[in-house]
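INTERNAL AUDIT FORM
Audit reference: QA-55
Scope: verify that the stored structure record matches its stored sequence.
Auditor: D.O.
Record contents follow.
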Amino acid sequence: MYPQMDICKIEVKSIQDYRGQISFTEFEELNPIFPIKRFYYITQVPELMSRGNHGHRKLKQLIFALSGSFTLRINDGENSEEHLLSANNFGMFLGPGLWRELTNFGLNTVCLVLVSEKFDPEDYISDYQDFLHWSKNESNSIF
């Protein structure tokens, strides 16, 4: 596990009754909190394909599986870990300076991502070698 809170699991609570199930999290309970400026969701990922495959210089994210499941791989240039996200399980908070890859999408998976910034192509690091160089030399990483 990473030494700081730039990565943390976000509990998802669920209540079920005869009408179905509702799953939720209370954002004011989260630390660190960030204003959500954008969201997007990922669907219909073909078998054996992956998403993400980039890092961010300043963007923060909350990532959830709304249905189905997928594997989230996280790397800071030195440490790496994997998390299986599935519906009604938990979400992940990712701070800046992390390489992320989403793989192993199940059938009918929906991935929701809440982000701290509007889209800015300059924030993305899409080449892994460039990310490694940036994470060693230019990031203000607390790792």
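Auditor finding: record pair retrieved intact. DSSP finds one helix and twelve strands in the chain.
Action required: none
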